Amino acid sequence: MKILIVHAHHEPKSFCSALRLRAKEQLEKDGHEVILSDLHALNFDPVSDRRNFTTVKDATYLKQQQEEMYASDAHGFAADLEAEIKKLEECDALIFSFPLWWFGMPAILKGWCDRVLAMGRIYGGGKFFENGLGEGKRRAMLIATTGGGANAYDGWGLNPPLDELLKPIQHGIFWFNGFQPLEPFIAYSASRIGDSEREKYLTALTERMAHFTKEVPLIMPLLADYPNWGPDNKGRFQIVVSRIAEIDDKYKSLIQAEADTIKKLKREGVLTDFQMSALEDPDWRAFFKMRGSDKDEIQKHLEQFPLASYLKFEITKLTHSF
Ligand code: FAD
To answer: Which partner from 80, 111, 279, 302 sits 20 to 30 angstroms from 101, CA to CA?
Structure first.
């Protein structure tokens, strides 16, 4: 596989750069060809303007996407852009590595996206999502370091959940352009943890990279489910779950399998929200939000739960508008 790593850290001795290096080493060890765009080493210019182009479609008004379409036909991209666009077109997989800055990516990487992901060459004219580059079959992963700890980003912390913060990249950049995102690799509190914890992150990344080509990507919404970019073909359902039998040893033995099923359905984009009260609460309830065609389909998903025989499911179809 040919894998493009776009790296955005200004310090080659940083932990983020060490992760990037480890990823490259493991991928090469497994026989992959790794192309590196180290944006600071390249002195990459992140500012998007007329300098993107050697051609001009309209000299009186700069409309970037129009100029990109024109440059795509007329070979009119500036040399630095053309080099990056070619790397992207030719790769089978894409990796971004960066420190989390202001809940997002550093400006130099955002600028790479703004300039390199050009309408015409990379997306547009029906080339998006599952119809995007490589028919949506290429894969992408992000490797990021953070200042904040995992608790701050787990959905109950001070900050928004990290998977929400990463959607502009996972969905808006990777998936929009036809790259199926994998689970992100996050090294939390990279500067504040000790060497041994950093070593654990390096080991975990080595293992992830060793399975990079086999890992099942996250299931993303298909354009086919949203005809003409309209509303979802599928419905949304609220499920209130209550217990109809006492907790016994069998129940306890199935809890891990239950958690795995929740994780699987989340990954598949079926379970879009999940909350529950404490296990020992006598009025225990769980609340699911699920995506599916109809109640029968939802019922079938619910029957997959190992604890289903202990539970009662009340399914309500939600409305899109009122
Ligand atoms: P470094 O400080 O470079 O590295 C940490 C330590 O690892 C260093 O001591 C280094 O020597 C050591 N190291 C290097 N290589 C190795 C190795 N091979 N093995 C073991 N140790 C090694 N954080 C947030 O959570 N949210 C934000 O929104 C946010 N916004 C920010 C905005 C800006 C502009 C800046 C500058 C920071 C922001 N941060 C934020 C913090 C930032 O995310 C972290 O500082 C960064 O991710 C830490 O990673 P690093 O690689 O830069 O760490």
So the answer is: 80
Instruction: Confirm or reject: Cβ of 168 under 6 Å from ligand 1.
Output: no
pLDDT in tens, 67-103: 999 999 999 999 999 999 999 999 999 999 999 999 9
Contacts of 7 (CB under 8 A, 6+ apart): 16, 17, 20, 36, 37, 38, 39, 96, 97, 98
- Protein residue with its CA nearest to atom 52 in ligand 1: 14
pLDDT at position 97 is: 98
Q: How far is the CA of 14 from the centre of ligand 1 (A)?
A: 7
- Separation of CA 100 and ligand 1 centre (Å): 8
Is residue 160 within 8 A of residue 146, CB to CB? The reply is no
From the CA of 100, give the closest atom in ligand 1.
43
Q: Residues 6 or more apart from 40 whose CB is under 8 A from it?
A: 8, 9, 10, 108
Q: Is 101 in the pocket of ligand 1 (CB under 6 A)?
A: yes
Cβ(15) – ligand 1 distance below 6 Å = yes
Quick one: average pLDDT of 248-265? 96
Ligand 1 atom closest to Cα of 14?
3
Checking if the pLDDT of 322 tops 80, the result is no
What mean pLDDT is predicted for residues 117-143? 94
d(CA 195, CA 247): 43
- Phi, psi for residue 297 in degrees, rounded to 5: -65, -40
